[in-house]
């Protein structure tokens, strides 16, 4: 009987269009892309595993670990395909998730559209009982009323329950007691906000526990089904999930807290880009991940992606903070727009070309897939422009129909604007590229950065097709397309540490700071975070401590990194100095001259991760040997506004130091890299492609 090997690892990423599989067999990578199966998502994983183990010449039983990320939870929230969920909350707070906050993201829009709450008003129940802001019980919990609510839920065909009480982050006793009472009469999962998101701000916390409960039955069923079917095919290895903060957690934890999986796939991509940045010693990087359904842009500084404690799902206004559904969990911070290869192109009422957010996905897919799709997608435009080889897409697994793409583009867009197919396709690609460029600019400005100061790392099935043009728009001179770019997120899963971030809100002013109490709180958080990590790691664990602080009276706080050591008698002075230094770094200067202005800590964070081995360092090379492409084809060139002769080069034929002068297309199994007229491509020592702007001093 073949036994599993710890040095054979597999990453599986379910996206909206493709499911990506990456298999690392003792340092050799095997990968594939298969169309996502919406009816049975695990089937695409099994199909992909069959392909890569055949290529590697191993059996499923030899796989040592499987690391999985998925957009299923995100899609369930966006498409409202979760369980019927009941919300039980404190009397007087029934409408918090509908009233939201007083912030208006579009100040003068009289027709402001907000996402509807996940749970309709008739499915929200209130109960008497009150915890104060300091964690003290102000009013006892009405347990008799909870018994009656449990009976109503049992008779109401509900699939899940969310419990969110006022100030439960300060004292979870009422939520825990309510869960015990309900569990005696109900056999459905019950989520409490004190465990899902123990942070201040009721709207965000209530919405997060509702989201967790809403997707929990579906995700638990999927993960159980996946494990069963993997065992049936002989893969007896442990399965871990990548969470939105970029670490790994057990399947059991993921089943209980599936909201942590929202954005898990994009998190893998950011980890992949951070690993590339570390490999080449690049401190300022913007990662660009474009798949079949969405495009994601993330800033990476000092070899680590930026992180946040909250983000939004399903924004009704593309670039407007506050227009989406807030999810209050640790997350890698990025901006995401509906601009993938499957995004639909259309013409609005003003006669402008628009793209997304609606996607053709894998079913029916773009028109060129020949799977029933009739509407034009970005992939159709790329095909008409000559960027894609219709006979060699996805390694030849999918034959593309150029005529179908032209018909769809002309019917839905070109004829309305009196344009031919080529001009229409160029217009579609220009719009999607400009949308992505705007998203990158907005993300950089929101973080106080200049986007052109960064090197770009492009990956995902569609990103290398658009990366050079995006760099032209953003003024970026260099872009790396790594090996395995087409399945970058899945490879990123294999680079992810076992990690978990535990949070707790406890409003504390420095004038009332008590080191023993805070040390005890941090010890509990550290034990919780390390407990999750120990489920999958046996080596050394490091902890990052962060205090989220503000001046009293401010609405939001800033992160202040702290040393992993107990607080002593000098804690207040140290915290004040660290906060003012961080405040000055964020805003240019600290606030001075106001006597008695208090500083307070709102939330504590402990992030535990296992220590990963150091990566081998490489130096970027500009290349010496010029490669002359043996074949060519006509590709539309943005610089001239007409088709030009592009050299076609197989990536596997190139060696380190080879230089390919643009215009050219470098093709591989999972993607193609378009080298526009203004760029050259240089192969690096690790096989990555470096796009370098001609004449730049980089």
From TrEMBL:
Which one GO biological process term can you cite for this protein? glutathione metabolic process
Which part of the chain is the Hydantoinase/oxoprolinase N-terminal domain? 9-184
Q: Pfam families, per this entry? A: Hydant_A_C, Hydant_A_N, Hydantoinase_A
Coiled-coil stretches are: none
Segments forming domain Hydantoinase A/oxoprolinase: 205-497
Q: Where is the Acetophenone carboxylase-like C-terminal domain?
A: 532-683
Domain of life (superkingdom): Bacteria
**What GO molecular functions are on record for this protein?**
5-oxoprolinase (ATP-hydrolyzing) activity
Q: Which GO terms describe its cellular component?
A: cytosol
- Protein name, per record: Hydantoinase/oxoprolinase family protein
- Name the source organism: Mesorhizobium hawassense
């Amino acid at each position: 009987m073949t036994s599993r090997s710890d040095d054979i690892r597999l990453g599986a990423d379910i996206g909206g269009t493709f499911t990506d599989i990456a298999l690392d067999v003792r340092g050799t990578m095997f990968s594939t892309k298969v169309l996502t199966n919406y009816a049975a998502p695990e089937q695409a994983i099994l199909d992909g595993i069959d392909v890569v183990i055949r290529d590697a010449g191993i059996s499923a039983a030899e796989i040592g670990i499987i690391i999985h990320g998925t957009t299923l939870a995100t899609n369930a929230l966006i498409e409202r395909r979760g369980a019927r969920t009941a919300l039980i909350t404190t009397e007087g707070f029934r409408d918090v998730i509908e009233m939201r906050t007083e912030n208006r993201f579009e100040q003068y829009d009289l027709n402001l559209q907000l996402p509807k709450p996940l749970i309709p008003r008739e499915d929200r129940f209130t109960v008497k009982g009150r915890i104060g802001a300091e964690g003290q019980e102000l009013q006892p919990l009405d347990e008799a009323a909870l018994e009656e609510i449990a009976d109503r839920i049992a008779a109401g065909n509900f699939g899940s329950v969310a419990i969110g009480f006022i100030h439960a982050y300060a004292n979870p006793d009422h939520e825990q007691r309510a869960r015990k009472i309900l569990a005696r009469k109900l056999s459905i999962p019950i989520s409490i906000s004190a465990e899902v998101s123990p942070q201040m701000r009721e709207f965000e916390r209530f919405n997060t526990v509702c989201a967790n409960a809403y997707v929990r039955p579906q995700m638990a069923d999927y993960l159980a089904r996946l494990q069963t079917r993997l065992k049936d095919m002989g893969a007896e290895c442990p399965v871990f999930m990548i969470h939105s903060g970029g670490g790994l957690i057990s399947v059991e934890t993921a089943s209980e807290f599936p909201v942590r999986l929202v954005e898990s796939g994009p998190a893998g991509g950011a980890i992949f880009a951070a690993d590339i940045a570390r490999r080449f010693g690049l401190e300022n990087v913007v990662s660009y991940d474009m798949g079949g359904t969405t495009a994601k842009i993330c800033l990476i500084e000092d070899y680590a992606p930026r992180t946040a404690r909250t983000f939004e799902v399903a924004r009704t206004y593309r670039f407007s903070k506050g227009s989406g559904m807030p999810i209050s969990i640790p997350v890698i911070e990025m901006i995401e727009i509906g601009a993938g290869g499957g995004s639909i192109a259309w013409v609005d009422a003003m006669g402008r070309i628009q793209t997304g957010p609606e996607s053709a996905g894998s079913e029916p897919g773009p028109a060129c897939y020949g799977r029933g799709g009739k509407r034009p997608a970005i992939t159709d435009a790329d095909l008409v422009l000559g960027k894609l080889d219709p006979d060699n897409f996805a390694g030849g697994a999918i034959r593309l129909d150029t005529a179908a793409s032209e018909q769809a583009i002309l019917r839905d867009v070109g004829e309305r604007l009196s344009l031919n197919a080529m001009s229409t396709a160029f217009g579609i690609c220009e719009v999607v590229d400009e949308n992505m460029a705007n998203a990158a600019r907005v993300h950089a400005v929101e973080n106080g950065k200049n986007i052109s100061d960064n090197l770009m790392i492009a990956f995902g099935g569609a990103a290398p097709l658009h990366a050079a043009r995006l760099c032209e728009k953003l003024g970026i001179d260099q872009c790396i397309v790594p090996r395995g770019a087409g399945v970058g997120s899945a490879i990123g899963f294999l680079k992810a540490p076992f990690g978990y971030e535990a949070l707790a809100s406890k409003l504390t002013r420095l004038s009332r700071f008590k080191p023993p109490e805070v040390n005890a709180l941090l010890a509990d958080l550290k034990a919780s975070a390390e407990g999750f990590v120990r489920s999958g790691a046996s080596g050394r664990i490091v902890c990052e401590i962060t205090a989220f602080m503000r001046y009293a009276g401010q609405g939001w706080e800033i992160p202040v990194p702290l040393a992993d050591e107990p607080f002593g008698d000098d804690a207040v002075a140290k915290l004040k100095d660290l906060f003012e230094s961080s405040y000055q770094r964020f805003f240019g200067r600290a606030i001075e001259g106001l006597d008695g202005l208090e500083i307070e800590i709102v939330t504590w964070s402990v992030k535990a991760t296992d220590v990963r081995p150091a990566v081998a360092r490489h130096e970027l090379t500009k290349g010496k040997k010029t490669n002359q492409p043996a074949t060519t084809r006509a590709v539309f060139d943005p610089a001239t506004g007409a088709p030009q002769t592009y050299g076609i080069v197989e990536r596997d034929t190139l060696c380190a130091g080879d230089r390919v002068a643009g215009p050219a297309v470098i093709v591989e199994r999972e993607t193609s890299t378009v080298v526009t007229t203004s760029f050259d491509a240089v192969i690096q020592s690790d096989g990555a492609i470096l796009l370098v702007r001609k004449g730049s001093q980089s």
